[in-house]
Design brief:
Mean pLDDT of chain B: 79
Low-confidence stretches of chain A: 113-161
Radius of gyration of chain A: 50 Å
Helix content of chain B: over 70%
Strand content of chain A: under 5%
Radius of gyration of chain B: 22 Å
Number of helices of chain B: 8
Oligomer: heterodimer
Largest sheet of chain A: none
Number of helices of chain A: 9
Distance between the termini of chain B: 83 Å
Number of strands of chain A: 0
Shape of chain B: globular
Largest sheet of chain B: none
Order of helices and strands of chain B: HHHHHHHH
Distance between the termini of chain A: 126 Å
Mean pLDDT of chain A: 71
Helix content of chain A: 55-70%
Low-confidence stretches of chain B: 111-115
Structural class of chain A: mainly alpha
Order of helices and strands of chain A: HHHHHHHHH
Largest interface: A-B, 32 and 45 residues
Chain lengths: 229, 188
């Protein structure tokens, strides 16, 4: 066995954690002073390494570690306990905000827009003379059978945030609603017809009758449902 | 005569919600693991960081993380292995960021800036050999370093280390052999 080979084996033996050398290696170490010196040094080095590593990792655990972990676990648990309450609440809040944004926008728009007013009977306000598409479409549709026209009148009176608040709603007898819708559509198509309808009619002198304009405050409004009873 | 009890779904007979019971059970189980594995986590962190305060911080974080994943770590062996890996990884990260910070501070601070006073454990291990050993340890590949640290811990056999790391005992032995050899070469 040469010295280089012996030193290699000495290192391997010590690195493997063995304390005793193989018989052949022991004989060489006993016979070779250089290898004996090397073995002594290496054995000391590996021992020091072992004790150094042991010092490094075997420090006693600080007494505060586990209590701190438990305390933080408690905090986490407390947070988790609130989670089932907070999550739905947050979700509701978010949904409310999402819904509120368009509503707020609409109310802003309706505040700036004219609110539906007088044209209840359509006689005094010559709205028909300003043919706007929307009001007339609404007028043509709204006379469709309404079981309780009282409600529709009330809606007109109070300013609404809805866009439809700016559209006139006309109170029509359900039996005449189809006819009125046709008339409204016709007026829309032929604005001059609307103008003609609004112009004061000069009656011949021999006719002794007068048509008084309809006055809304004089109307007694009752629910059609109640009238049916 | 057989007695029948009407139980609301999701609740036990005495009315305690099943989830609550499960949570309590998990707490009891985790408490047992905490007492068993707390020192292990601290020692691993200490082996990498060599600073008790930092090691305690890292061990604490690792244990909290372990609790959050406890539902899939009920098996004690799995838990320990997971904790070893996560603590080692977190300690390495902490060490790297501390080194970066140290480097920055050294670059920008006044040259006569004095180092912070050494802690008690640093004083205890302040021999020249110890600092050389620490430096040499840092140069080792992570796999070898972790095996060396675990093997140096009192109370863990080679088989336990192999179970902790989820590798065969033969692999632990060969890594340990390589680690010691490389370390000795660096210290020679």
């Amino acid at each position: 066995m040469n010295c280089q080979n012996a030193r290699q084996q000495i290192t391997d033996t010590l690195a493997a954690g063995q304390l005793e050398l193989a018989a052949e290696l022991t004989l060489h170490v006993q016979a070779c002073a250089g290898c004996r010196e090397f073995y002594t040094q290496q054995a000391e080095l590996f021992r020091a390494m072992g004790s150094g590593l042991s010092v490094m990792v075997n420090l006693p655990m600080p007494a505060s570690l586990l209590p701190n972990v438990r305390a933080r676990l408690g905090e986490t648990e407390a947070g988790r306990r609130w989670l089932p309450v907070l999550l739905p609440a947050a979700a509701v809040l978010v949904i409310a905000c999402i819904l509120a944004v368009p509503l707020l926008r609409r109310s802003k728009v309706s505040n700036g827009a004219p609110v539906a007013s007088a044209p209840v009977a359509g006689h005094q306000e010559p709205r028909i003379s300003q043919p706007e598409k929307k009001p007339l479409e609404q007028a043509a549709v709204s006379p469709a059978p309404r079981p309780k026209p009282v409600r529709s009148v009330q809606r007109k009176a109070s300013p609404r945030s809805d866009e439809s608040a700016s559209l006139p709603v006309v109170l029509v007898d359900p039996r005449e609603s189809a006819g009125f819708a046709q008339l409204a559509a016709m007026v829309y198509r032929q604005p001059e017809l609307g103008k003609a309808l609004l112009e004061p009619v000069e009656l011949p002198a021999e006719v002794s009758m007068a048509i008084a304009p309809l006055r809304v405050p004089d109307l007694e409004i009752e629910s059609l449902g109640e009238m049916d009873r | 005569m057989q007695e029948l009890v009407l139980v609301q779904p999701g609740q036990s007979i005495d009315g305690t919600p099943a989830r609550e019971l499960e949570r309590t059970g998990a707490h009891v189980e985790f408490e047992a693991r905490l007492a068993e594995c707390g020192p292990l986590a601290f020692r691993i962190a200490q082996g990498v960081l060599r600073n008790a305060a930092d090691a305690e911080d890292v061990a604490q974080e690792a244990l909290l993380k372990a609790f959050r994943s406890f539902h899939r770590l009920r098996d004690p062996q799995k838990f320990r292995a997971w904790l070893v890996r996560i603590t080692f990884r977190m300690a390495l990260d902490r060490r790297r960021s501390a080194k970066r910070r140290e480097k920055r501070e050294t670059q920008w601070a006044m040259p006569e800036l004095r180092p912070s006073p050494p802690s008690a454990e640093a004083l205890a291990a302040s021999s020249e050999f110890q600092s050389r050993l620490e430096r040499a340890m840092e140069e080792l590949p992570e796999k070898l370093r972790l095996v060396l640290l675990l093997a140096a811990m009192q109370g863990y056999t080679l088989e336990e280390v192999s179970a902790m790391l989820g590798i065969p005992a033969g692999t632990v032995k060969s890594r340990l052999f390589l680690a010691r050899k490389q370390l000795a070469e660096k210290l020679r």
